[in-house]
C-alpha cells in the first residue's frame, strides 16, 4: 500500500464499484460500473426514502427518460451506487469521501445532494435493512445483482417542492404520496412505478412505519408502565463514618468525575444517544407518555430495553427534532427542514466504536494492511475506529498499486484520549485534585495514574495501581469491560464504581483465601487434571456509594475489574437489596412452604464470595491427549465463558460443604445456602439465556433436577432434597472439571445443549413470577449525590 498523488488518481475517470461476493462481502476488487453490470457482478447501492411524519407521505422522484434502467418511472426519494472505497452512509448522505476529494469517487455526492439538492448530517439517516435486488434489463445488457442498504429520513413536514434542486440528467420531477397509497400501487404492479416486492423484505419498511405511527398512546403508556414495574426502586447508601475528612472531600470530586463517565458512555452507546437523552429530559413533563419514556430511558441509558434482550422501547419517531435552515435552497415563508435525529431499530453490534456502516470484511481488509503496532490499536480496547471521510482527512488515503483494481482504506484508529479529549481532560483534573486530598497513599497513586492514563491512553500503570488499592474508599473508574461491541468485544466502555470497604466481610474473604490451595488439592477430579494453582483471586467487598457509566439496565452484585477474572469487586449492599426486594418474593412464589424460612442472606453471600474464589480453581493450562500444550479457554472457545461460570457456581457449593466438613464453616449454612441458591436460579433466569452466567444457572438447575436434588411439587413449587442435591453437586463438579481438564469441547457442547435450556418446570415458574408481577431487578438511586452537590 502507498499514498497516491492526486494527478495519478484523476486519470482514473470511470466510476469504480467494489465487487462483492455472493453473500455481500467485499472482495477487495473494484471494477468500472459498466463492467460490473455487463458481467453481473455483485455490488452495493443505497436507497433513501424521505418520509413526512405529520402528513404520513413519502417523497418520490421521477427518473429521467435517459436512465439506463426504469427510465421515466416514479421511484423512491433517491438512490445510487456506492463507489469503490466509499461507504454506504457517505453515499446516502452525500458526504465528501476523502477519496472523492482526490477525484476517485466523483459520483458519490449525487445521491441526496446532487440528485435533489438536500444536505443532511449523518444523524438524519436511519438504517432500516439491506436486501438483494436481481434483475436483467435492456435486452440482457444490464445485469443487476445489487445489495441495497435502505435508509429512512423522517422529516416533520413535507419539504416544499420549490426547495429541491434537481439534477436534470437524473431526475425530472418530485412529488409526495401517502405511504399507504404508494404501497398499494407497488403491490398492484402499477407500470408507472419502479417495481419493489412489498411482499418480501422491502415490505418491512411499510410495516415499520405502520407500527410506528399507529397512534395508540394509552397502549404505549401501559406497555412502558409494565416494563418499569419490573424494577424495584431502592435508595442505596453506605456508612461514611470511617472515612477521614479529607477522603470525604475527595469523594465529592470523585462523584463529579463519575458523572463525566456517564457522559462518555452515553456517546459510546450511539452517536445520537446524548441528543436523545436531552430531548427526552426536556419534554418529560409534556404528557404521561413522555414522562414514562424518560423514566425508562433513565434506567437503561439507551433506547433499548436491557430486560427484553435489547429490544427497542423507543423509535426515531420519539427522537429529537432538529432544524436545518440551509439544508436546501431557500423558499419564501419556509423556516427550513426539520428532521428527527435517527437511531437504529436494534442495538448496533459495534455500538459507537466503529462507523455504523462499516462491514466486517471492510475492517478485515483494512486491518490486514496495517503494521503490527497499528493492528494493536485497531483491535485494542482504548481506540475507536473512524472514517477518514467523516473528518475530511484528505492526506491519509491508501490505495493498492493497481489503480484499476484499487481499494481505498477509509478507516483509521483514534485513541480514547483524543476521541473524548475534552471530557477526559476535565475528569483528569478532578482525579488529580481528589488524589491530592486523599489520606491514602495507594488511593492517591491510583487516582493520579488514572488521570495520567486519561491523557496518555496507556492504562497499564493505572490497572496495577487498582490491584494494589488498600484504602477505605474504593474506586474503580475508567474504561474496563469489553462487551458492547459484540462481536468481537474489543472496545472498553467507561464506568465508575465508588464504594466503602466492608470490614465485616474481610474475615470471610480471608477464610477462602487461606484455604484456596487446600480446596484446589481436594477438588473432585483426577489428579492428572489438577492445576496446582498457587495464587487466589483478589476479592474486595464494598458497599456501593455511587455508580455511573456502563452500568445501566441491570444491576450486578459483582464485577471483574479491570477485565481480569483474578480481580473481583463484590457489592454487598446491592446484594442485600436484591435479597430483600427480589429473592424473598421469588421464594414465596417458587419454593415449597416448608423451606421458605430457610432463605438466608449470610448463606447466600457466603456462596457468592466462595464462587468468585472458585473461578481460579481447576484446570486452566492443560495438556491434551496428544501431548500438545493448550488452555481451557483456547479449547472451549465460544463455550468457555458459560462453562467457566457453571464451574465457579457448582464448585462453590461443593467447596462450602468441604469447608463445613473441616469445621471451618458452620453446618447451619448448608440448608439455607441450597434454598438461596435455588431462588437465585429463578432470579437469574428471568433475564433470558443470552449471557454466560445465566446459561450456567440453567445448566445447574436442570442437572440437579435430573439428579433429584431439586424437586417439583404438585402445587408447582420446588423444594431441595438435601441428600440428593449434594451428590448432584459433586457429580456435576467432577464432570465439568474433567471436561475442562481434557479440553473436550464436544463434551462441553453436549452438556450445555442438554441442560442450558428453559425446561418446562422453569418456564412454568418464570411465567408465574411474571403473572404475579414480581420485580425482576432493582433500580438503585444514590442519595449521596444531592447531599454532596
UniProtKB/TrEMBL annotation:
Q: Which residues cross the membrane?
A: none
Any single GO CC term annotated in Swiss-Prot or TrEMBL for this entry: cytoplasm
Q: Which residues form the Nudix hydrolase domain?
A: 41-199
Under the heading InterPro entries, the entry gives: NUDIX_hydrolase-like_dom_sf, NUDIX_hydrolase_dom, Peptidase_M49
Q: Name one GO molecular function term.
A: metal ion binding
Is Cell cycle there in the keyword field?
no
Name the UniProt record assigns to this protein: Nudix hydrolase 3-like isoform X4
Amino acid at each position: 500500500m502507498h499514498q497516491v498523488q492526486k494527478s495519478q488518481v484523476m486519470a482514473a475517470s470511470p466510476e469504480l464499484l467494489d465487487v462483492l461476493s455472493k453473500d455481500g462481502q467485499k472482495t477487495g476488487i473494484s471494477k468500472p460500473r459498466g463492467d460490473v453490470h455487463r458481467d453481473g457482478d455483485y455490488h452495493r447501492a443505497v436507497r433513501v426514502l424521505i418520509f413526512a411524519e405529520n402528513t404520513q407521505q413519502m417523497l418520490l422522484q421521477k427518473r429521467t427518460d435517459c436512465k439506463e434502467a426504469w427510465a421515466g418511472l416514479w421511484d423512491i426519494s433517491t438512490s445510487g451506487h456506492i463507489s469503490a472505497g466509499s461507504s454506504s452512509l457517505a453515499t446516502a448522505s452525500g458526504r465528501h469521501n476523502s477519496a472523492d476529494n482526490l477525484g476517485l469517487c466523483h459520483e458519490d455526492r449525487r445521491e441526496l445532494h446532487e440528485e435533489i439538492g438536500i444536505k443532511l448530517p449523518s444523524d438524519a439517516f436511519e438504517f432500516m435493512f439491506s436486501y438483494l435486488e436481481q434483475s436483467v434489463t435492456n435486452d440482457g445488457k444490464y445485469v443487476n445483482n445489487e445489495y441495497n442498504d435502505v435508509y429512512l429520513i423522517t422529516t416533520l413536514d413535507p419539504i416544499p417542492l420549490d426547495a429541491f434542486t434537481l439534477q436534470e440528467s437524473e431526475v425530472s420531477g418530485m412529488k409526495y404520496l401517502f405511504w399507504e397509497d404508494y404501497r398499494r400501487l407497488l403491490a398492484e404492479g402499477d407500470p408507472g412505478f419502479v417495481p419493489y416486492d412489498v411482499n418480501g423484505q422491502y415490505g418491512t419498511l411499510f410495516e415499520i412505519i405502520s407500527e410506528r405511527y399507529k397512534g395508540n398512546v394509552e397502549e404505549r403508556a401501559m406497555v412502558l408502565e409494565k416494563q418499569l414495574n419490573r424494577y424495584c426502586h431502592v435508595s442505596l447508601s453506605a456508612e461514611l463514618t470511617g472515612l477521614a475528612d479529607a477522603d470525604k472531600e475527595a469523594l465529592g470530586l470523585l462523584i463529579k468525575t463519575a458523572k463525566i463517565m456517564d457522559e462518555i458512555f452515553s456517546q459510546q452507546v450511539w452517536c445520537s444517544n446524548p441528543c436523545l437523552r436531552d430531548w427526552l429530559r426536556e419534554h418529560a413533563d409534556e404528557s404521561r407518555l413522555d414522562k414514562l419514556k424518560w423514566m425508562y430511558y433513565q434506567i437503561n441509558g439507551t433506547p433499548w430495553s436491557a430486560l427484553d434482550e435489547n429490544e427497542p422501547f423507543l423509535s426515531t419517531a420519539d427522537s429529537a427534532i432538529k432544524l436545518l435552515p440551509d439544508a436546501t435552497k431557500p423558499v419564501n415563508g419556509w423556516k427550513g427542514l426539520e428532521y428527527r435525529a435517527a437511531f437504529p431499530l436494534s442495538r448496533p453490534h459495534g455500538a459507537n466504536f466503529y462507523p455504523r456502516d462499516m462491514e466486517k470484511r471492510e475492517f478485515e481488509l483494512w486491518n490486514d494492511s496495517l503494521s503490527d503496532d497499528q493492528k494493536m490499536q485497531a483491535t485494542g480496547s482504548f481506540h475507536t475506529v473512524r472514517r477518514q471521510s467523516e473528518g475530511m482527512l484528505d492526506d491519509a488515503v491508501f490505495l493498492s498499486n493497481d489503480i484499476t483494481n484499487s481499494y481505498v482504506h477509509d478507516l483509521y484508529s483514534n485513541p480514547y484520549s483524543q476521541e473524548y479529549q475534552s471530557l477526559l481532560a476535565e475528569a483528569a483534573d478532578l482525579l488529580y485534585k481528589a488524589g491530592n486530598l486523599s489520606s491514602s497513599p495507594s488511593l492517591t497513586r491510583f487516582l493520579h495514574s488514572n488521570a495520567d492514563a486519561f491523557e496518555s491512553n496507556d492504562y497499564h500503570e493505572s490497572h496495577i495501581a487498582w490491584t494494589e488499592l488498600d484504602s477505605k474508599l474504593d474506586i474503580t473508574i475508567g474504561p474496563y469491560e469489553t462487551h458492547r461491541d459484540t462481536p468481537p468485544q474489543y472496545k472498553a466502555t467507561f464506568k465508575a464504581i465508588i464504594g466503602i470497604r466492608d470490614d465485616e466481610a474481610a474475615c470471610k474473604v480471608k477464610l477462602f483465601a487461606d484455604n484456596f490451595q487446600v480446596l484446589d488439592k481436594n477438588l473432585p477430579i483426577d489428579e492428572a487434571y489438577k492445576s496446582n494453582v498457587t495464587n487466589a483471586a483478589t476479592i474486595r467487598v464494598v458497599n456501593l456509594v455511587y455508580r455511573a457509566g456502563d452500568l445501566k439496565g441491570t444491576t450486578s452484585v459483582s464485577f471483574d475489574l479491570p477485565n481480569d477474572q483474578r480481580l473481583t469487586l463484590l457489592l454487598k449492599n446491592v446484594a442485600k437489596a436484591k435479597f430483600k426486594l427480589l429473592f424473598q418474593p421469588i421464594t414465596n412464589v417458587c419454593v415449597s412452604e416448608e423451606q421458605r424460612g430457610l432463605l438466608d442472606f449470610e448463606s447466600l453471600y457466603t456462596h457468592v464470595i466462595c464462587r468468585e474464589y472458585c473461578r481460579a480453581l481447576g484446570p486452566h493450562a492443560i495438556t491434551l491427549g496428544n501431548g500438545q500444550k493448550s488452555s481451557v479457554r483456547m479449547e472451549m472457545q465460544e463455550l468457555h465463558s458459560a462453562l467457566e461460570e457453571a464451574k465457579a457456581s457448582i464448585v462453590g457449593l461443593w467447596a462450602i460443604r468441604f469447608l463445613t466438613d473441616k469445621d471451618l464453616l458452620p453446618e447451619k449454612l448448608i440448608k439455607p445456602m441450597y434454598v438461596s441458591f435455588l431462588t437465585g436460579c429463578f432470579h437469574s433466569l428471568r433475564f433470558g439465556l443470552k449471557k454466560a452466567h445465566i446459561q450456567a444457572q440453567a445448566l445447574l438447575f436442570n442437572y440437579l433436577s435430573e439428579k433429584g436434588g431439586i424437586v417439583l411439587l404438585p402445587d408447582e413449587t420446588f423444594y431441595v432434597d438435601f441428600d440428593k442435591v449434594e451428590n448432584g453437586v459433586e457429580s456435576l463438579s467432577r464432570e465439568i472439571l474433567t471436561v475442562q481438564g481434557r479440553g473436550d469441547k464436544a463434551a462441553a457442547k453436549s452438556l450445555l445443549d442438554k441442560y442450558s435450556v428453559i425446561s418446562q418446570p422453569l418456564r412454568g415458574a418464570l411465567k408465574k413470577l411474571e403473572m404475579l408481577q414480581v420485580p425482576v431487578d432493582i433500580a438503585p438511586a444514590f442519595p449521596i449525590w444531592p447531599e454532596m452537590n
